[in-house]
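Predict structure. Chain length: 72.
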Amino acid sequence: MAPTQENAMNGSYPLWRHLLVYVNKAPNKPLDPLVKEFIKFIYSKEGQAIVIKDGFFPLPQSVIEKELVKVE
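Prediction complete.
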C-alpha cells in the first residue's frame, strides 16, 4: 500500500496519525489575539505550504473551513 494522502485519509494505509494543536484557553474567554492569528496562519495557504514542505499532508479545505469556524 502506497503512503499517499488519499490512502492515509481513507484509512487503507496503516501507518499514519493526526497532528494536533492544543490551546490553553480559559472557559468562556476569547482566544488571545496572537494565538488566534497563529491558528489562522496554520490553516492559511502559506501555513499549509509549510506543512507540505516539511513532508506532511495538508488538511483538506473542508476540514480547514470547519476548524476556522471554531477560532472565530
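Summary: Residues 30 and 72 are 9 Å apart (CA to CA).
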